[in-house]
Amino acid sequence: MIKLSQIKKSYGRQQVLHGIDLTVGKGDVVAILGPSGSGKTTLLRCINYLERPSDGEITIDGFTVHCKRPTKADIHRLRKQSAMVFQQYNLFRHKTALENVMEGLVVVHKQPKEQARLRSAELLEKVGLGDKLDAYPSQLSGGQQQRVGIARALALGPKVILFDEPTSSLDPELVGEVLSVIRRIAKEGITMIIVTHEMSFAQDVASHVVFMDHGTIVEQGEPNEIFRAPKEERTKQFLKRFAPESAYSI
Amino acid sequence: MGQHQFEIAYVFEYFYRLLPSLKVTLLIVGSSIGLGTIVGLLVALPQLYRIPVLRRLSQLYVSFFRGTPILIQLFLFYYGVPEVLKLVYVDLTRTPALFFVILTYSLHSGAYIAEVIRGAVSAVDRGQVEAAYAVGMNGFQAFSRIVLPQALSISIPVFGNIVIGNLKDTSLAFTLGILDITGKAQTMGTLSQRFIEIYISLAALYFIISFALQKLFDRLEKRLLRHEPAAAKDSLVKISFLRKDVAASKWRRKEAQL
Lengths: 250, 258
Ligand SMILES: Nc1ncnc2c1ncn2[C@@H]1O[C@H](COP(=O)(O)OP(=O)(O)O)[C@@H](O)[C@H]1O
Ligand SMILES: [Mg+2]
Known about the structure:
The complex is a heterodimer of chains A (250) and B (258). Helices cover 40% and strands 25% of the residues of chain A. Chain A is an alpha/beta fold. Chain A has one domain (2-90, 159-249): Rossmann fold, CATH 3.40.50. In chain A, strands 6-7-8-3-9-10 form a 6-stranded mixed sheet, with helices on both faces. A 4-stranded antiparallel sheet of chain A has the order 2-1-4-5, covered by helices on one side. In chain A, strand 7 (160-164), helix 6 (172-187) and strand 8 (191-195) form a beta-alpha-beta unit. In chain A, helix 3 (97-107) crosses helix 4 (113-126), helix 4 crosses helix 5 (142-155) and helix 5 packs parallel to helix 6 (172-187). The radius of gyration of chain A is 18 Å and the shape is globular. Chain A starts with a strand and ends with a helix. The longest helix of chain B is centred in the middle third of the chain and has 31 residues, at 139-169. Helices cover 81% and strands 0% of the residues of chain B. Chain B starts with 7 loop residues before the first helix and ends with a helix. Chain B is flat. Chain B is mostly helical and 258 residues long. The chains are: A alpha/beta (250), B mainly alpha (258). The interface between A and B is medium-sized, with 29 and 24 residues. The structure holds adenosine-5'-diphosphate (ADP) and magnesium ion.
């Protein structure tokens, strides 16, 4: 359903992505792991064109964008097919939780306000924030803000939701509530690509795990293969360093 | 001066007699802030969008108007512009002085307003713009729905300071013969020789208007920043920095005038 081929990205002289190929099926939950600076964020941002790839092709649901010469309409259409959940939540600070979720429905999808309001309230209910509809981001905890971010992404009915380290800015005691929301929507069959450092979460939610380093995909496969029997030396080292518990806990 | 005994009753009388001239003062303030906002936006845009040559020009513009005393700017425009235009056979000798005053104050506050707009727009974090794009908005929607409303509320306090500063600056317009409240006070003073009473009422008048404006902007700020009850402090840090900056350079300018 999603196919990336030969995605390359350079900042000036520094090449950050060296031709990434990745196929994601409908309903897959892909976890991307890798050391910091390996290009995970850049890859996600390329998929919805917050970053312009220098080369390659992105196909989502049969619609292909050639990154060498995309038109504005291409980019717009691509963005409408995906939604993003950011590490820093990036909520619209002058809008309430409800308005944050409604914004895309009303402005981009041109839904009537009443309909958008009902739908948004429903989604906030679903992420456990039914009582915070009128709260501004400044009045919400990090975990609550991130759940609004997830509701905002869900509202657009995207083909894929991209999560960039959704729990990395959270206090440890707030990580659980966000992960459990993600776990719940993963079960509903929504296609997701998640960059995360939460190894045990990746292990039990992902249907597919990708390990990146230095702008390339070093290894990918089923969670069991990657976590229990990694083939590549770099993957082994990373897992040992990052998740010693998973190496011993079997 | 001094040949009259001070009499408080005159303060009230002069205050009353100054009121009609208030419309000239307010006309200058109103139109120069209005035009200045347009100028400010035009000057800020090349800097916000990093347009190569225009960006330098707008920086130059801002440094000129911030770096020279407004009194000199007034004289330069009043005496200089007609001279320059004479070279291309445009005759401005009959143009009223008020025109040059409004022109100068518009260009002058435009420079300050450009700085405010620039600061406020960059204070809205980039992440929200990206979120807007990710939601599917185009550049115009992201700017008008996400950046601009927040930039406006962030800039209210500094903008208020500029308006009040502008009000006080208009007191120099009398040097070109404008009969604003200061000009009127000068004339009345010369006739009556009761300068003390007149300046007291003049000061009171400026004070009352400044105070009212201050209250107005405070209210507006509260209303527009209601979404940042806690973090208001946060943006206030940014702003008080800007504010000090504006205040300090105004102060330096005033010093330079003395
Ligand atoms: N806007 C940018 N300009 C220049 N270099 C960047 C930019 N964004 C990311 N990089 C570089 O690209 C590399 C990959 O970054 P990133 O995708 O953020 O990695 P990760 O998310 O895996 O930590 C890093 O070396 C980083 O310094
Ligand atoms: Mg990252």
